[in-house]
Write a structure and sequence with these properties.
11 strands; Rossmann fold; five-stranded parallel beta sheet; single chain; alpha/beta
């Protein structure tokens, strides 16, 4: 049995496939599973079970219907897939799965719950309830194909923590201090921690000489900003943005005591590394189903506003014009969640 799984973007959504796919591979060792995605996410799958394979595709080489047909032909030559799991359900994946259906392959696709998500974000009369998580929705796809899966997952690293050699040239080796990560950015304004709040949080954390703080981000502007902030606290704050590749960042996250992250890819990456996350939610809400794998709702920081959530992805302009959902979150609120995790028995 050969199964092709398709999910191209974004990084957080691909990361959320990992616990389900790893569990699927372990529960069905005789099924050969190929994950089709963008090449840069390969590190998420490098330590997967032997029957879970990864194929990276540069979609810029397969533009339009003709390009997708060429990709389909290449995939057919590489393997006679019996079933197709479309975990993305966008135009290009609809085309691919239809082509495979015409060859006799069994096909199933994700139900993203668009209608119930719209109800969750209605300006008035919100249907404020917990929706199925992305993990639930991914599991449902495999159930439709005849492979029900019970997701059981701890970390992408077999020993729980990765080899320090993957990051030590940048950070040094773990030194007995508590290591704390901060990832204050996100793709959209509705999910970014205000800079003033981030700066105060870094200041509060850096005051403890037994804590070491690592700043995570991506892109030139974020990297430069994080570097400036870290320079104010040379003793125990370090920006790793732009200094480590994805594999190195995942490895470092596995050695953190806790990660502070927005509703963003870093929340999911830390979750894959088995690290507790204090998650900060602005315009979005955990009810939409995007909480990191294994993370506690008790560590989700949110403001109680009638307009929340106003967006599933945080990409809509603030109706209030002030992003109160984020500006009302204080460093003290975040610190209150960090301390119990760091002080828990068994932490370094």
């Amino acid at each position: 049995m050969r199964l092709l799984v398709i999910r191209f973007s974004a990084l957080g959504d691909v990361a959320m496939t990992v616990p389900v796919l790893v569990s699927l591979a372990r529960q069905y060792p005789d099924v050969s599973i190929t994950m089709l995605s963008r090449p840069f996410v390969l590190p998420l799958f490098e330590e997967s079970p032997p029957n879970l394979h990864f194929k990276g595709v540069d979609l810029s080489r397969y533009k339009g219907a003709a390009g997708l047909y060429r990709l389909f032909r290449e995939l057919k030559r590489e393997g006679n897939y019996d079933a197709i799991a479309d975990l993305h359900d966008v135009l290009r994946t609809k085309i691919l799965r239809t082509l495979f259906r015409w060859t006799g392959a069994k096909v199933a696709h994700i139900d993203k719950g668009r209608k119930e998500k719209r109800a969750l974000t209605e300006p008035r009369r919100k249907a404020l309830k917990q929706l199925p998580s992305s993990f639930d929705r991914y599991e449902e796809v495999f159930g439709k194909l005849g492979y029900p899966v019970q997701t059981a997952f701890r970390s992408i690293f077999e020993k729980g923590k990765a080899d320090c050699a993957l990051f030590s040239q940048v950070t040094g080796i773990p030194d007995g201090k508590h290591w704390i990560g901060i990832a204050p950015f996100a793709a959209h304004n509705g999910k970014k921690l205000p800079q003033a709040t981030t700066l105060r949080l870094i200041h509060e954390l850096s005051a403890n000489s037994n804590w070491r703080i690592f700043l995570f981000g991506g892109g030139k502007a974020e990297n430069e900003l994080l570097e400036q902030w870290a320079a104010n606290y040379p003793d125990n704050v370090l920006s790793v943005a732009g200094k480590l590749k994805l594999k190195g960042e995942l490895a470092l996250m596995s050695h953190l005591d806790v990660m502070v992250s927005m509703d963003s890819a870093n929340m999911h990456l830390a979750s894959l590394a088995g690290t507790p996350v204090v998650s900060v939610w602005g315009a979005t809400h955990p009810y939409a189903g995007f909480m990191g794998w294994g993370q506690s709702i008790d560590n989700a920081i949110q403001t109680d506003l009638p307009c929340r959530p106003c967006s599933i992805f945080g990409n809509k302009p603030c109706r209030r014009k002030d992003y109160a959902c984020l500006t009302r979150i204080t460093p003290e609120m975040i610190m209150q969640r960090i301390r119990p995790i760091v002080d828990a028995p068994g932490q370094a």
